[in-house]
Structures are given as structure tokens and as C-alpha cells.
Design a protein that fits this description.
This protein is mainly α and about 210 residues long. The protein is about 75% helix and about 0% strand. It has one domain. Helix 2 (about 30-60) packs antiparallel against helix 4 (about 80-85), helix 5 (about 90-115) runs antiparallel to helix 6 and helix 6 (about 120-145) runs antiparallel to helix 7 (about 150-175).
């Protein structure tokens, strides 16, 4: 994941317990506002990259572009980037499972796009079933690691993410480019909502880390 030079999320969290003497109204890097800002920005960036590299994969697959291998490789970095945002708050076994579930989400989704492009309906139907099953597994996983990630909300959120992406894929493969662009706008708005939901849950559960 890209972070501005000398302002990486990991480096900031190494110093999060650094003592300071401000009254809470300053702009110092130890303030709770700054920590919230760093988390929210990092989470939004990770999920923005999730949908943008998925979109680039979709375009490269649909148009059979030569950049597909490199685009795929970059997309598959994203699960670790997302897990890295959670890493300051959760142990490695949790973030590793998180990365594995999101990797599965992307791999199944990628295979599904290819099957749909090639009009392999039986294969596409099975992949679609697995894709939604994986989304439900992700919902259960996230609900298990944070009391503020409500299961019903997680299920709805991941299902909506897949539904909106499905609309984007269908429009792109059909050559309905305006609809494709409009669909991606909805995907983007939903991804930012997801990112903020995850950030809020972390700040509520680990409130002592933002004081």
C-alpha cells in the first residue's frame, strides 16, 4: 500500500503511546484526532485500492489486455494491505485469516468474471455460489473479532458489496459503458462506507488507543 513518505501508518502506530503535554486542543501527532485521521485515511485507502484494482482487473479481463498478469498481481497485494491496517489492534492469527478470506474473495471473483466473459454459465453459477458463501464467511469472521461489527450489518454490507460489483461486471461485459461507470460509482460509495464502518468499530473497541 502507498503511504506518503515518512508518514506510514505502521510508523505512526509505533509512536502512538508517546507521552505529550498538550491540552487536547493542539495539532500534535499524539492527539486523538490525529490518530483517528490516520486510521480512517489508511482504511479508506485500502478499500479504495480494493475496488479500483478490481475494476482494472475487470477491464483487463473483459478486453483481454496484455497487462492482466501484472494487474492481477497488484490486486492480490490488497488483502495484506487491508490486514495491515488492522494489525496494530489484532494478533497475527486474526489478520492472517482476514487476508486469506479477502484473497479467496478476490480469486473467486476473478474466476467468475472470466467464466462470465467466456459464457460458461454452469461454471459461473457455481463460482457465484462460492463467492456469496465466502462473503457470508467474511461477515461471520468480522463479527467475531469486534463487538461493534454486528453480524446482520456485516452480512448486509458484504452482500451489497457483491451485488453492486455484479452489476458493474454485467454492464462492462455487455459493453454498456455508461451503466458500467455509474455502477462503479455505487461500488465506490459503498466501499467508503465499509471502510468508515470498520474504522469506527476499531475506535470504539480500542478507545484507549485514541486518547
Amino acid at each position: 500500500m502507498y503511504f506518503p513518505e515518512n508518514n506510514s501508518y505502521e510508523n505512526e502506530n509505533k509512536n502512538e503511546n508517546k507521552p505529550h503535554s498538550c491540552d487536547g486542543n493542539c495539532n500534535c501527532k499524539s492527539s486523538d484526532f490525529y490518530r483517528q485521521f490516520i486510521l480512517t485515511n489508511a482504511m479508506r485507502l485500502a478499500w479504495e485500492q480494493h475496488i479500483y484494482w478490481t475494476r482494472l482487473f475487470l477491464i483487463s479481463t473483459a478486453e483481454r489486455l496484455r497487462d492482466l498478469p501484472d494487474t492481477t498481481a497488484r490486486l492480490m497485494q490488497n488483502p495484506k494491505d487491508i490486514a495491515k491496517v488492522f494489525a496494530p489492534y489484532y494478533p497475527a492469527d486474526v489478520t492472517d485469516k482476514m487476508a486469506n478470506l479477502i484473497t479467496e474473495h478476490l480469486k473467486i471473483g476473478g474466476d467468475l468474471i472470466t467464466a462470465l466473459r467466456d459464457k460458461k454459465s454452469n461454471e459461473a453459477n457455481e463460482l457465484n455460489r462460492r463467492w456469496y458463501a465466502n462473503a457470508n464467511e467474511m461477515a461471520n469472521f468480522f463479527a467475531s473479532i469486534n463487538p461493534h461489527y454486528k453480524l446482520s450489518e456485516m452480512q448486509e454490507m458484504f452482500k451489497r458489496h457483491l451485488d453492486l460489483t455484479t452489476n458493474e461486471v454485467a454492464a462492462r461485459l455487455a459493453g454498456r459503458y455508461k451503466d458500467d461507470i455509474d455502477a462503479f460509482g455505487k461500488v465506490e460509495r459503498e466501499a467508503l462506507m465499509m471502510a468508515d464502518y470498520f474504522s469506527q468499530g476499531i475506535m470504539q473497541t480500542f478507545s484507549n488507543r485514541f486518547m
